[in-house]
Automatic annotation (TrEMBL):
The gene is Nars2. It catalyses: tRNA(Asn) + L-asparagine + ATP = L-asparaginyl-tRNA(Asn) + AMP + diphosphate + H(+). Pfam families: tRNA-synt_2 (PF00152), tRNA_anti-codon (PF01336). Its main location: mitochondrion. Belongs to the class-II aminoacyl-tRNA synthetase family. This is asparagine--tRNA ligase.
């Protein structure tokens, strides 16, 4: 028998004899003359209908049980799907105790409920859709960079640098170091941390490759349990050499966003539809066609807006809305400011460029302007989320970089970084995009913890 995935079976154009489908039972309906099953193997939101003789039913054939079905794939008379499986044999591979199974048939469980079962929640339709979308979005991002000539770099997860300079790092110790902390010994001879960004390592690589990217886990020890923060999340980061314009950086950001989103919408339309119909807050249209039309209209046929930090502050100062944090030049933009700017610009993504010099890390390029001193930095703000991407031109001029590191007392720690400017330095820049925030944006999810596979919630084995 030919083994088919559920997605392949549903997409078949003609009948196929002797096929085998494996998956989990989503529903059982036994009638006097026919037995109906719906099974799913995670490859599709839609279930495959199995039609069988009632004699094939047994007590272990229940919701949640794992089965292997052999039979003939035939055209379905049902208008909701084109193909169905005429079963000749049904084998229960793994029975399921439906009474104690926390997911119940025909119940739409809330995200709050299924967070209690991190080891089982992937069997829920919502999380199944999310994981398929994550998979397609990941592949789309890799394809975008590969198709545009970028070299994929695996940057270290364990590092000794704090790229962001915020000090919100998880320090790594062996169990012996934890017990004998008084001895102040380190496994790597220096303090080691979980990475907050792969940027500095990518900057090393643009001394040999003109375009590089990384896509991996990053960690922030920010003590926040809000709906916007994660301790562990995935970051897409890229660096481009031989560029002296922020326009080059923003163009890559925009193209990446549009390409990845187009791929997700084309390959996972029903999965995205599920989120916009039932999950996205305040986005429950009667007809799902409203959502992709809006997305396509905003994200594909219009260029993203572009304002300077100076202009953004003036827009905020003139706003009729009262902000919790008063907008002032020289202060960082808060989430409420970012969302207002997106709304002000017509609910389209907005690039904010040229931030105050003192707000940004040492590696951002000095614009040498005055009296309001700025650096060539950029943030991409998107509807419903606020900041999605952050980037800048990097300071490639050795005297400027030396002077700033000296003022910050970082010269010794970043001597290797200065070396990069001594040996074949070129103008370059780059950016980083939070992957989970990207998923929040395209799916309309309010709580960022609902777009990760494993929430840190209850069971100690998964914490």
């Amino acid at each position: 028998a030919v083994r088919l995935r559920v997605r392949e079976a549903l997409g078949a154009r003609e009948s196929v004899g002797e096929v085998k489908v494996q998956g989990w039972v989503r529903s059982v309906r036994s009638q006097k003359e026919v037995l109906f099953l719906h099974i799913n193997d995670g490859s599709s939101l839609e279930n495959l209908q199995v039609v069988a003789d009632p004699s094939l039913e047994n007590r272990d054939l229940a919701f949640g049980s794992a089965v292997e079905v052999q039979g003939r794939l035939v055209k379905s008379p049902h208008r909701m799907q084109s193909m169905e499986l005429k079963a000749e044999t049904i084998r229960v591979v793994g029975p399921c105790d439906t009474w104690s199974f926390p997911l119940k048939v025909k119940e739409r469980h809330s995200l709050e409920y299924i967070r209690q079962f991190p080891h089982l929640r992937c069997r829920n339709n919502t999380l199944g859709s999310l994981l398929r979308i994550r998979s397609e979005a990941t592949a789309a991002i890799h394809s975008f960079f590969q198709d545009n000539g970028y070299v994929h770099i695996h940057t270290p997860i364990i590092t000794s640098n704090d790229c962001e300079g915020a000090g919100e790092l998880f320090q790594i110790e062996t169990s012996n170091e934890a017990r004998e902390s008084a001895r102040k010994t380190h496994f790597f001879n220096v303090p080691a941390f979980l990475t907050v960004s792969g940027q500095l390592h990518l900057e090393v690589m643009v001394g040999a490759f003109t375009h590089v990217f990384t896509f991996g886990p990053t960690f922030r020890a920010e003590n926040s349990q809000s709906r916007r923060h994660l301790a562990e999340f995935y970051m897409v980061e890229a660096e481009l050499s031989f560029t002296e314009s922020l326009q080059d950086i923003t163009q890559v950001m925009e193209d990446l966003f549009k390409t990845a989103t187009n791929t997700v919408l084309s390959k996972c339309p029903r999965d995205v539809e599920l989120f916009h119909k039932y999950i996205a807050p305040a986005q429950k249209p009667k007809n799902f066609l409203v959502i992709p039309f809006t997305v396509i209209l905003i994200f594909f046929f219009f260029s993203f807006c572009r304002v300077s930090y100076n202009e953004a502050v003036e827009i905020l100062k003139q706003a009729s809305q009262t902000f919790t944090f008063k907008p002032e030049w020289g202060c960082d933009l808060q989430t409420e400011h970012e969302k207002y700017l997106v709304k002000h610009c017509g609910e389209v993504p907005v690039f904010v460029i040229n931030y105050p010099y003192d707000l940004k890390p040492f590696y951002m390029r000095d614009n040498e302007d005055g009296p309001q001193h700025t650096v060539a930095a950029v943030d991409l703000l998107v509807p419903g989320i606020g900041e999605l991407c952050g980037g800048s031109l990097r300071e490639e001029r050795l005297p400027f970089l030396e002077a700033r590191l000296q003022r910050l007392g970082l010269t010794d720690a970043y001597q290797w970084y200065l070396d990069l400017r001594k040996f074949g330095s070129v103008p370059h820049g780059g950016f980083g995009m939070g992957f989970e925030r990207y998923l929040q944006c395209i799916l309309g999810v309010d709580n960022i913890k609902d777009v990760i596979p494993f929430p840190r919630f209850s069971h100690s084995c998964l914490l």
